[in-house]
Amino acid sequence: MMEILHVGIDDTDSKRRMCTTYVGAVALDRLRERGAKVEGFPKLIRLNPMWPHKTRGNCAVAFTLRVPPDEVEAVKETVLDTVLSLADLEAEGTNPGVVFYPRPEIPEKLKAYTRRVVQEVVELEEAEALAAEIGAEIHKFKEGRGIIGALAAVGHTLEGDCTYELIAYRTPENWGKPRRVDPSSVFEMDLLTRPRTFDNVDEESGEIRITPHTPCPVLYGIRGEDPEVLLRAHQLVRRLEPVERVVIYKTNQGTDEHLRRCRISEVRPYTSVILEGRVVAGPRTIPGGHVIFTLEDETGRVDCAAYEPTRGFRRVVRALRPGDRVRVCGGVREENGIPRTINLEKLSILELAPLFRRRNPRCPHCLKSLKSEGKGKGYSCKRCGAHFPHLKPELVRVEREVREGTFEVPPRCRRHLAKPLVRELSGGRP
Ligand code: ATP
Predict the structure, then answer these.
(1) How many angstroms separate the alpha carbon of residue 268 from the centre of ligand 1?
(2) Which residue has a Cα nearest atom 10 of ligand 1?
(3) Which atom of ligand 1 is closest in space to residue 214's alpha carbon?
(4) Do residues 227 and 265 share a domain?
(5) Which domain holds residue 239?
(6) Total tally of structural domains belonging to the chain
(7) 162 Cα–ligand 1 center, Å
(8) 250: how many CB neighbours lie within 10 A of its CB?
(9) Which of 92, 152, 162, 299 is deepest in the core (most CB within 10 A)?
């Protein structure tokens, strides 16, 4: 008889070192060496992207093991030793947490908690109380804040929409050095595997997106709809440095799970929302090149912003006009001095307001454009000399510079959790 053990790990890295997925990957290999069986794919769970104290992408990892009963304690030791030896414990903000949950079924209460950690802000005390209630064992290093994410990663069953990411890790002597991957092979891989893989490159800036810019152990990560396409994509990438290990994670990335549909009066800081309403003011470009417009629904008004790095996306936002009906997706920013603003991730133009411009009427006799005689004095024709004291200016419908549809920020500005349009268009998972 084997026992089930769910393991969650979070908050092991700092801006200068490490990555929680790497800690998970090393722990998994050490556990396999001990004879533990890993169930399915390890999970890479992205948590609330608006949580202000995240290091970078707010991710936690979890995996499920089948362990002989007399090995359970040794397995836990292996996980804890791995965290202890790899986590950047000297960094001030690094507060690792490890969670062990010993039952096969994930309780509904834990699933609901996970949803909140992805969408809202959760206190450490709440994580501790829930762990005690459901019988999850927690291990805190330093302040142990990581148990919030570790418990959430255990609780995510990825039953709904999900994607996969293949991560290739570098050998330690290369950590911190420039990554050596042939960019042209990434463009080729993108061409051959898209849309089953996504966000490999940024067409607008011409950069490859699979290699991070941080000193962490990741050489690259390829995201896609299934493990098979990721293995194929991995074969197509030309690596110019050794790879220490490769792991495929099942993940909630690219699913829009962070977004909560609500009304403007219900918008809260540190969350991400979907709002529907009409443009009532703007768009206006502010110093720095950011474009802002004001959205209104029956409950209130809020500013929505396309920031400068979103470049081409701002063209769409600039083309909006008061009266347009739109749906916006984005994170809520509210900082000292900055009024509450939705940081746009996606924009759907649902209905374009008709736009008119005034023009002088034409002469009914010779069809030439009439000349105004001054306010309230009517018009006269320069060619035939006729005078029309009661004619009014004509309203002509103006062609809009934008069409109805959904638009998104470019891959380099995309949140890990944001669902790229290509996933929606290609139907996502089969
Ligand atoms: P990386 O993506 O580089 O691995 P990170 O961005 O995931 O790093 P962490 O170092 O894991 O950042 O720090 C995030 C911390 O915030 C963790 O301790 C985690 O438990 C906690 N946390 C995550 N989401 C929430 C939330 N919604 N509410 C409260 N705390 C959270």
Answers:
(1) 19
(2) 11
(3) 3
(4) no
(5) 163-251
(6) 4
(7) 20
(8) 19
(9) 152
Within a domain: 419? no
Written as six digits, the tokens of 174 are 């290369």
- CATH number for position 58: 3.30.70.2200
DSSP 173: G
Closest by CA to 279, choosing from 327, 325, 342, 332, is 325
And the tokens for 154? 């255990």
Q: Distance of CA 361 to CAs 189, 368, 384, 397, Å?
A: 59, 9, 15, 14
pTM of the complete model beyond 0.85: yes
Residues in contact with ligand 1 (CB, 6 Å cut-off):
10-11, 13, 19-20, 47-48, 51, 53-59, 95, 117, 121-122, 145-146, 148-149
Residuewise pLDDT in 10s, the chain (430 residues): 889 999 999 999 888 889 999 999 999 999 999 889 999 999 999 999 999 888 889 999 999 999 999 999 999 999 999 999 999 999 999 999 999 999 999 999 999 999 999 999 999 999 999 999 999 999 999 999 999 999 999 999 999 999 999 999 999 999 999 999 999 999 999 999 999 999 999 998 999 999 999 999 999 999 999 999 999 999 999 999 999 999 999 999 999 999 999 999 999 999 999 999 999 998 999 999 999 999 999 999 999 999 988 999 999 999 999 999 999 999 999 877 777 999 999 999 999 999 999 999 999 888 889 999 888 889 999 888 888 988 888 999 999 999 999 999 999 999 999 999 999 876 555 4
Last residue of a domain, which of 208, 224, 251? 251
349: how many CB neighbours lie within 10 A of its CB? 20
H or E stretch including 91?
Answer: none
Whether 12 maps to a domain, the answer reads yes
Asked if 9 contacts 76 with a C-beta cutoff of 8 angstroms, the reply is no
Beta strands in 129-217 (DSSP E): 137-140, 163-170, 197-198, 201-202, 207-208
